[in-house]
UniProtKB/TrEMBL annotation:
It comes from the Bacteria. The chain crosses the membrane at residues 371-396, 417-439, 459-476, 517-538. InterPro entries: AB_hydrolase_Est10, AB_hydrolase_fold. One of its GO terms (molecular function) is hydrolase activity. Keywords: Hydrolase, Membrane, Signal, Transmembrane, Transmembrane helix. Residues 1-23 form the signal peptide. This is Alpha/beta hydrolase. It comes from Isoptericola hypogeus.
Length: 543
């Protein structure tokens, strides 16, 4: 009996492992073999045009005047915050370059976003405008980067009319998601004098998401088996549809650039393909000739927002803008045209991108997120439905029907506990997997490691999965035992069927329709959950 149960469990585990392996793509990112080497560790900007050398200010040189503004858009309007440098007499400086800021995915309010950067540039002599993000056309599910470029273009138009701004020297600063928008703006409006791309993914959002997840998971130290989930989660069509912007390609827009580009990355940013992004921007902006010279700077210890940790008095840590970045950006903007193509093109800390961001393999059978969610909900629903119907039937039978009318429903001998173990185990394993993934996500986003959670949690999930497979094997064995008992009874009785027994596909499993319904609901519901667990890698056996 024990040997047969072990053999059946092994067969179930191998079957689930094979199903999981063929049900979706594997994850095998390509390592970076040719690393980008900066010419020098010094990020200073050189080549300042002598004609403007005496007009370049240092960060902190000027007082900054902040003024709320309103930016008119099609059918609506947004607020904004204008920062202007003023001299010792409180007068606005004349003929200054201007910069419009374009938000990343995590920012939206002008009063909260880019405060250090916009203030630092303004204190060096650059007029800055941070508009509010337009949110009535921007959701997690739907966003249009080309349309957003048109909206941000209104801020450029406004800044060109501001007193003290040189309208011929207005550029755009984009961070993260905003760097998919800025090249569109410059292609649509060649009058934009320059662009600053900070933490630019360059690759489409889907590829960047897969790259970031891979990087975060490696930093967290998850087991290798977990990585299989990356293409299956990022590559599928998400539940409910939408998310068309996930495949937006900015490179055709980069090829249309005509203005100088400053590319900035922090080497402590694990979410961006920093080397690959810099290389692709250099290559793409050169397609049209030398009209769009590119300058690249890598800042040591800087994160996604080019912030670095700074100790505070209470022993904690705060993050503030890398001081060299503010200095370099201000010099690069004000030193045009000489700074646009001055050597060295690539400077700063040496980046270390481990893997390339590339096209995400698409899931085959379960590529539709609605199917994935539907399978889980259907499985849970079936697991509740069967026992619930049986319980209701038992109550009704006890209240309104004499017990002598029909035998009470029941399962084959020993099948009930095994069936309960299968149903409870499949639900428990699914819950444990979700809890594990959420815990890993929290650690990854906080740049933390916890081997007990990451390694121990995964072992716990897989052990629950094995225990559920054992319960499934016991269900199979109990059915086989019931069939053998039925055959023996038939032989003893000369082939006559036992009174009141009911047979399903040749195997006696239950008596009464509520018991049959419960049996098949639990089996079908558990199977749906087990196949889902196999798809997400719980039953990997190195296949």
């Amino acid at each position: 009996m024990v040997f047969r149960t072990i053999a059946t469990t092994a067969a179930i585990l191998v079957g689930l492992a094979l199903t999981g392996a063929v049900a979706g793509p594997q994850w095998d990112p390509v390592p970076v073999s040719d690393h980008l080497v900066p010419a020098t560790a010094d990020t200073s900007i050189h080549g300042v045009d002598p004609a403007v050398a005496d007009q370049i200010g240092d960060v902190g040189q000027y007082e900054v005047r902040e003024t709320p503004v309103t930016v008119p858009l099609d059918g609506t309007q947004v607020g904004g915050l204008l920062r202007q440098p003023v001299d010792a007499r409180g007068e606005i400086l004349a003929d200054r370059p201007g910069v419009v800021y374009v938000h990343g995915a995590g920012t939206g309010k002008s009063t909260q976003a880019f405060r250090e950067s916009a203030t630092a540039l303004a204190s060096a002599g650059v007029v800055t405008l941070v508009p509010d993000k337009r949110l009535d056309t921007y959701t997690t599910r739907d966003r249009d980067y080309v349309a957003m470029a048109g909206d941000y273009g209104r801020s450029v138009d406004l800044l060109r009319t501001i007193d003290g701004v040189d309208p011929q020297h207005v550029g755009v600063y984009g961070e993260s998601e905003g760097t998919w928008i800025v090249p569109v703006m410059q292609a649509q409006d060649p009058g934009i004098a320059f662009t600053i791309l900070v933490s630019a993914p360059v690759v489409p959002p889907r590829q960047q998401a897969a790259f970031a997840v891979d990087s975060y998971l490696r930093n967290t130290g998850v087991p290798e088996q977990v990585f299989r989930a990356i293409p299956r989660a990022v590559g599928m069509q998400l539940p409910g549809g939408g998310f068309e912007y996930a495949d937006f390609d900015v490179r055709p827009w980069l090829e249309q650039q005509t203005a100088p580009v400053l590319v900035v990355y922090g080497t402590a940013d694990p979410s961006m393909p920093v080397e690959q992004g810099a290389r692709e921007i250099i290559a793409d902006t050169a397609v049209g000739g030398d009209q769009a010279p590119t300058t690249v700077r890598f800042y040591a210890g800087a994160n996604h927002g080019i912030n670095v940790p700074t100790p505070v008095a209470d022993g904690g840590t705060e993050y503030h803008l890398h001081p060299d970045f503010a200095r370099d950006a201000a010099t690069w903007v004000q030193g045009m045209p000489g700074t646009a193509d001055a050597d060295p093109r690539v400077a700063g800390d040496r980046p270390n991108q481990l893997y390339l961001a590339s096209a995400v393999p698409q899931p085959r059978w379960w590529g539709n997120g609605d199917i994935v969610v539907g399978a889980v909900l259907a499985g849970l629903g079936l697991l509740v439905l069967g026992p619930l119907v049986w319980a209701v039937h038992a109550v009704v039978r006890r209240l309104v029907r004499p017990r002598s009318l029909a035998p009470a429903p029941r399962l084959a001998r020993g099948l009930g506990p095994a069936l309960a173990g299968l149903g409870v185990g499949s639900v428990a394993t699914m819950v444990a997997l979700v809890a594990y993934l959420l815990a890993v996500a929290r650690l990854a986003l906080d740049y933390e490691r916890d081997d007990l959670v990451v390694q121990g949690g995964w072992v716990g999930v897989r052990l629950l999965g094995v225990a559920t497979a054992v319960a499934g094997a016991l269900v199979v064995r109990r059915i086989a035992d019931a069939r053998s008992a039925r055959q023996a009874e038939a032989a003893t009785a000369g082939g006559a069927a036992g009174a009141g027994a009911q047979e399903v596909t040749g195997v006696v499993v239950a008596r009464g329709w509520p018991a049959h319904l419960t049996f098949w609901c639990v089996v079908a519901g558990s199977l749906a959950l087990l196949l889902t667990l196999a798809y997400w890698g719980v039953y990997q056996l190195g296949i």
